[in-house]
Structures are given as structure tokens and as C-alpha cells.
Fold this sequence. Notes:
Strand content: 35-45%
Distance between the termini: 17 Å
Helix content: under 10%
Radius of gyration: 18 Å
Strand order of the largest sheet: 4-5-6-7
Low-confidence stretches: 1-17, 19-31
Amino acid sequence: MTYPSLVRGAAALVTGVLTLAGPAGPAHAEPADPWVRSWGLNAAGQLGNGDTADRPTPSAVRGLRRADVRELAVGGGSNTGNHAIALLQDGTVQSWGGNDKGQLGDGSTADRAVPGAVAGLAGVSRVAAGIDFALAVRDGRVLSWGSNAYGQLGDGTAADPATRPVRTQSLDRVAEVSAGCQFAVALRRDGTVWTWGRNHQGQLGDGTTTDRNTPRRVPGLTGIVAVAAGCQHALALTAQGTVKAWGRGVDGQLGNDGTTLSSSPVDVLHLDSVARIFTGWYHGFALLDDGSVRAWGGNWAGQLGDGSTVKRTTPVPVPALTGVSALAGGYAFSLAVRDDGSVLAWGDNASGQLGDGSTSASPTPVTPLPPGSGTTRVPALLPWKSAYAY
């Protein structure tokens, strides 16, 4: 699940947290160090620090410097098997964590607790990670690997798994990809949106609930500048600064004042002047041109950050989020990076994914990384209970 910015914005999704950031303790600012940071659940080695012990405060991903990372994507997995994908500045890709479906792309199904190369990938411009699968864009075309139970590799087959990258069919000139739980969304350079994979909640946006093993265009969407996939829903940012949504809606994640699914795009209400969009598994965020943040969707663990645990079927302001440059959402927690280099986290904390040294949930932000940490980004979509920053 992934997504950087185009004309107006970027997409994000989160169940684990990864940062390219500085010190591990939340108590006080220290000089920034160069490492990508991770914390929370680590049962499959998804924190990339060489072991499988959970970490309630940030630790370094072994050998991975934030200056070397162009983009980071984190996906969920069966039970605790989260995995992470790092696109390096030289266009190669590294991966680590759970690998039971070949989602590390190294030709094996063995978990790995430190970063290693994805087989045969170079010249890559974008990456994304979903549940047990991953995506990369190279020369405008999409490559995919891992689980294919619902056609999410987009190669026209039902082969499962692919432990090395395969080519997604019939799609070129791709600018951006995002991965949901078992489906994928691609934004082409012409502003059209294409989807494939699982569709039981209408998450492909094509007016049906039929799974697709090759890409199909989402009807009616033109002039789109960014996309973001949640677990079973998706968002698209228009050139006019408005937002469209489709897919699962029971938690209010479509933002249309309803709680039913929509297999075709609908307007997210009361939103304009949106600069960037971000998704969690069942919630969403919009960063407006004025720097304020709006949130909507599932909120049972306080993952919207508005101080409540009430789900929101239309966007509401999040007063605590000021000076924010990027957000990310996971299963029931969220992250934000501020302009001062600090990282905020809120929501569920059962495995220490808020990074504040505790396992207590918080409906308002805590600060796992302080100002001056050097952090500038968080992955677009987070998995179950792990977090990252870079």
C-alpha cells in the first residue's frame, strides 16, 4: 500500500510505522542520526533490525540510511507477517519481514529480519505494498509479486504465489501505484485510474463486485493527480482539489455521510482545496492547502486523532495536527510528520506501535520522535501494528 505526490498530493496507508528519522527516545531532542526507524510489532522481522522482538520505541533498520531511500512502503500479512519494501535512490529495491507468500520478491518464501534485494529489480520509480504482495513501477509499467489469490498481481493468471516480480498486463505510462489489502490502484500520466484484484466491496470502482486479474479503467475518473488505497476502499484527488472515494463504506471511510459500499466513485463531502490525500485501513485524511487536516472513517481506537472514538462519516477537523507535511494510517493507528522533524502517533498501541514506550492507546497524538529528529516522511500505508519513519 503506497503513494507519493504528483501535482497536488500523495497517498498514504499504515498498519506499521517506519521512519527515516533520528533518536529512539521520545523524552528529548537529540542530534539526528542517519537511519530509517521502525517500532511496534516484529513477529516476522518486519522492523528490519535483525531480530523478532517487539519494540515500543524507535530502533534503526539495519544498514538502511534515510538518505539512500527514495520511497518506503509497508504491507500487512497473514496474522503478524508484515513486510516492508524500500526503493533506493539508485532505483533498486530492498525488502524484509514476512515472506510466506513470496512478498519479499527474492525467489523464496523465507522470512528475513534485515533488508535484502528484490530479485532483478533496477530502474524502479515507485513502490507499493499490500497484504502479502507488492508492486513496483519501472519505465511506466507495473511489476508485482507475492500473493495472487484474487488476481492482485494483474498478470492475467491465478498462479499463487509469485516469489519473483512478474509483469502486470496491459498498463503503461503509470505515474503512481497504491496497494490495498488485496487490490491495486494505478494512476496513469493522463490522469486516468486503473484497478485490479479483489472487488467484493466494490474497491475496484468499476460498478461491479467482480474480481479482476488484469487492470481495468475506473469509469468517470479524469484529471486525477493522486490516488490512495485503504484496505477495501480507495481515494482519488482531482486537479480541482476535491476527493472521490469508492469501495467499503461501513466505517464511514467513503466520507459521503453513508455507511454502505459504493462500487463507483462518490464525492467525499465538505472537502475542497485539498493538497494531499492519505489512507488508513478503514479511515482517511486530507491535508488542505492551508495546512489543516481533515479525517473521516473508522475511529474505534482513536485513529482519527480528534480526541474521540466516534466514527466519522464525513471529514472533521483534527485540531492537534498543525505544521504537518505527511500522514499515514494503519489498521487502527496513524502517524504524522511535522515540518520540525517530529513524528506524531495516535490510536491503538497494543504492540507499541505508537512508539512512546507504552502499550496504552491514545485518541490524541503522542510524540515517538522529537523535533530535530531528521524525519521527513512516513510510508503511505501501514500494516497491522508496526510503524516506520524516514
